[in-house]
Amino acid sequence: MDGVSGDIMVTSTNRKCSAVTGSARKIKDNAADWHNLILRWEKLNEDGFNVAAYIVNMRLSQNSQLQLVDQSSSPSSPSSASAAPAAPAVGAAELQDECCKLQDVVDKMVTVVKKMEQLMTSQRGIQDLEEFQFGPEGRKCPLFHTWNTKQFKLLSGVLWEAFSQELKLKQTILQELAHTETSDLCMVYLSCWLHQPFIPPQIRLTLESVLLETGHRPL
């Protein structure tokens, strides 16, 4: 996702709001964690795309080799047929190795999404506490600039839902990519992996709005 750059470290120097304690401090820390988790996701997405592209190239090359084997196995060329089966076996082992690399990337994405879910749960807990302390309408004054606690909870849910759906797509691509026979479908899978259809530009804006509201970005 363009526009998301640089880890945000939660330190005393970037807590510029006066009396940033309690709910406000937890929300601000959560905002920094969201930013850093999304950066982590983007790095994994890039790594996964590189592996997936390599797998696609291997599959297409393997299919081409098999077509050549079929042609060389014709009665007119019996000598070529005896030497042909060794090449696909080597390719299959290498393909399996690359699939394991992609599995590792997806496993790390699962961990990222689990941490995102924990942030969402934390935000819900803050909302419940606010309602217990101040009633169903929450506190009168905003914690930062204009947002109330409920808005942070809702946007955390939006972010988590987007990445959860994208993770499901990644898991589907992982299962299907190495078994795909046609180049067109391979390109569709690669395009889906790269462009992340469940993480549209609005998600980027959602994150930036959270960072602006909590003071991690200057207004």
Automatic annotation (TrEMBL):
InterPro entries: Cyclin-dep_Kinase_2_interact. PANTHER family: CYCLIN-DEPENDENT KINASE 2-INTERACTING PROTEIN. This is Cyclin dependent kinase 2 interacting protein. It comes from Seriola lalandi dorsalis.
